[in-house]
Amino acid sequence: MEAPFDVIARRAGIGNATLYRHFPTRAALVDAVFRDLLTHTMTVGEQARTAEDAWSGLCDYLAEIFTVLATDRGANDLMTTHLEGVETLETVHAHNRETVEILLRRGHAEATIRADVTTEDLLFSFAALGRAVPALTAATTPDAWRRPLTLFLDALRAPTLSPSPLPTPPLTPPQLATTLHQLGPDRGPHPGPHEKR
Fold this sequence. Notes:
- By secondary structure, the chain is mainly α.
- The protein has one domain (25-183): Tetracycline Repressor, domain 2 (Orthogonal Bundle).
- The chain is built from 9 helices and no strands.
- The protein has helices spanning 5-12, 16-22, 26-49, 54-71, 73-80, 87-110, 119-139, 146-156, 173-183.
- Helix 4 packs antiparallel against helix 6.
- The radius of gyration is 19 Å and the shape is flat.
């Protein structure tokens, strides 16, 4: 997202002037590159809204979104950070919030989602977990995100419902260390005085 325009032009095999003529701003370039993906995200949201029940709609929606976040680093950066002026992205963010609100209202009415869960709870957790997905998959396997997503979803379930079985193996200590390292310096617990750095 932050690559200079001259670098982008060089990698695309075109001149700077050509790039600027078609995409006068970074927002215009991002909008063009990711428009199909962002439009697909809204289509998935529409499908989730009309699911037979809110719980399956929410689970299917987040599974689809996290599949994209895990397989496309550019899409992950775009969807989990704030970038001004990308019209399609702003529309997607608004649509995502509306989808979550609709599913939560339905889930509360159906008694499948905890009554105290808010839209903000879900959106914050969704963003935080989404940002961690690339580090997790780089350190483990492409589907490793399914386990923390399942744990996250189970925290939303109404207390009367049974938790879901966890779909992938837990992280090993080395995998956790690698994942935390991928997230950036000093993100994990510091070793104790008798542990090696």
